[in-house]
Amino acid sequence: MGFSDFQFLPRDGAGRDPRRFPGHREVHCYLPDFCAAFGLMDAVRLNTRVVRVAPTSTTTRQRQWAVRSVRRLGGPEDGARVEEEEEEVVFDAVVVATGQYSHPMLPSGIEGVGEWRRRQLHSRLYRTPEPFRGEAVVVVGCGDSGTDIALDLRRVAREVHLAASSEAATPAVSRMVANHGDVLRLHPRVRRLHADGRVSFADGSSVVADTVFFCTGYGYSFPFLDTGGAVAVGDGGCVVAPLFEASSTCSRRPWRRRSPSWACRGRSWCRGSSRRRRGGSRRRCPAAARCRRRRRCCGPWRSTSAPGRPPACRGSTPTTAPPHRRH
């Protein structure tokens, strides 16, 4: 873990260990150190909420972006009344890099969620294990957040039940459960929550729990972005389009090459000059030899060149599309 120009190395008081997967406390120590080393905090506005980002003009060539934000000047921790200051600044370009780790996604296949009267939380709200001391906790999902929270809770909780689908129960998770079998237990997916506090699993077993943690991921949400439909979020918050380079032709992009003749769509993670299609066969990019970004596959493509002209690879602007989208 770590950026190439700022290694994730142990430091006195930081508690970082580069030999293993870091926990959230280690990452929390690393990020402020990175900002301090490169002087990034001079360009960061804290306690500021962006409320609207909208174009100032409908024309593409002279378009600028108005960013309206609200900054909190005081708060209850200061013993003063909360004061806010609104500001609007015009920029030539805006990069939305808010990620997808703020809008929780809750599972829809669990019955009785509305009937369960005990505590239900998303992993986004987890901070420390102390409030759950002596409790029986069910953690739904065994991704990075689920395993991290389960290991953190095992030190104070009476029981920790980790529920996951069979596909998600990797050998690493099984070993983790085996090492802490006195407190930590692995179950299949949750089927139903009962009003009396029971949690039923897909194999018919059940446990009585005090808290259920949903470590089920996040979705994209841009409530501040006003683009008139130019940027859309779909598939239940899992897909946002178009991205910076996700255009079928890129003909309206100012960073396009001089004489584009064909464009790529697909995921840019694949290596090599070909990509396996759904049928199992490989379709080779005819211009892969001239592709500047050889580490990225041109993937599913369609020729847009004129008859008789060899297609030119648009390797310098690889596109990214959701893996489930059909071309």
> What ranges have pLDDT less than 50 throughout 5 or more consecutive residues?
247-327
Radius of gyration: 25 Å
* Strand percentage: 25-35%
Query: What class, by secondary structure content?
Result: alpha+beta
Q: What are the secondary-structure elements, in order, as H or E?
A: EEHEEEEEEHEHEEEEEEEEEEEE
Named CATH architecture of the largest domain: 3-Layer(bba) Sandwich
CATH-defined fold name of the largest domain: FAD/NAD(P)-binding domain
How many structural domains are formed by the residues? 3
Helix content: 10-25%
The number of strands is: 21
Shape: globular
Mean pLDDT rating: 73
The CATH class of the largest domain turns out to be Alpha Beta
CATH superfamily of the largest domain: FAD/NAD(P)-binding domain
Q: Helical stretch count?
A: 3
Outline the biggest β-sheet: 5 strands, parallel
Strands of the widest sheet, in order across it, are 7-14-8-9-10
| Distance, first to last CA | 35 Å
